[in-house]
Structure formats: structure tokens, C-alpha cells
Amino acid sequence: MHPALQLLLCFILFMFLHISIMALCAHALGITVRSISYGMGPALLTLGKVHVRLLPLAGNVVLKDTREETLYDDDPCRDAYNFQPLWKQVLLPLSGVAVLLAVALWLMGPQGWERFVAAFGQIVHGALAPLSTAQELLGEGETFARTHGFALVFALFSLKLCAFNLLPFAGLNGGQALLAIARGGRPFVAWEETAAKWLLLPGLAILLAWLAAFAWHGWKSIGM
Predict the structure, then answer these.
(1) Per-residue pLDDT reduced to its tens digit, 117-138
(2) Phi and psi angles of residue 71, each rounded to the nearest 5 degrees, phi first
């Protein structure tokens, strides 16, 4: 299988499992799930609360949350995410990453933890040099994909994406857990919106840098 196709399949599978695990975890914790979206863009299929969208690049689980919606005055909000105990507010955003990380480490074997820890530095260094360092890392990944089966390729890809999702930036699971800890279990704090906006910028910069790196790597592959 071509490495580009493997990458796409790995991303779709990771996204599907990540979103599904978080939705199941929310249900198990007694938190109301408003909607589940697989992908971005226009909806191709809607089944109740589940939406399958055009671009399989991301997804999200929308929870009952008084910071995002206006509820009736007589609603006790016991099933709202931001009214849950602190441990639930931290556990939920980390649930998908935790399960996928465990699976990836099991598939990868003894080298898994080392590759996971190294991923944090690779993500940052690659983002700072998308046309050099990132290209070397992508080249190593492509070689790995050509010489290993899909299960190991998915495991390696999952380790890297788990590390990315654990970065302490808004919009990522690590950032969501960090903000929950900073709130101290409170349903709302006045500074959170401002903090989330500032925490969004570094994560967005890293993401855009890596998108540029992938685009350049793909362009060079086509040119060759």
C-alpha cells in the first residue's frame, strides 16, 4: 500500500476511534452528548446525533455545557460537562488519547514509549523548520511505512498524534484538560475565554507549519 494512502487510512481510523471513545466515555460518566461529528465540512450522512462529514480531517463531540448554551432555569445541570467533578472534566478530554496510546504502545512493543516521548520534541522542532527538519522526519516515516505492515504504521502514527493532542494548547485534549485543572472544577471562570484564545495560537501555528511540511513533502514526491 502506498504510504500516502496508509497515512490517510491511519488518520481516518485514529479520528474515528478518538471521537467514538470520547463519546462513549461521556455517556458512561453521565454527561449528555449533544452531537458527534466525524470529519469537517458539509454533512454527508446524519443518523440521530451522529454526523459524517465531507473531509475526514478532524471531528468533535459536542457536550451539554452551560458555557456554550442557555439552559432552562429549572435545569439542575447535573449532566452538563462543566458541572462535573474535576476528575471527570480532566478524564473526558484525555480518554480518547489514553486508549489509543495504550493500544499503540501494545502494538509497537518496547520501542513504543521511546518513540512517543520523542514525538513531543519532533513536533516542535519540525514545526520550527518545516522545510528541513520536518522533511527528514516525514522521510523517516515514509520509509517506515514502506517497510512495515499497516498495524505498526497505525501504531507509530497514533503515537505521534497522541503526543500532538496532549500538547497544552486550546483546541487539543491536553489544553482542555489543563484549562479544567486551572478552573479547579468550577463551572465557569471569567478569564477562561481569554486564556483559551491565547492558548489557541501556538497550537494553530504548529498545525499550520506541519500542514505546510506535508504539502511540500507531497509536492517533492510528485516531482520525483
Answers:
(1) 999 999 999 999 999 999 999 9
(2) -110, 165
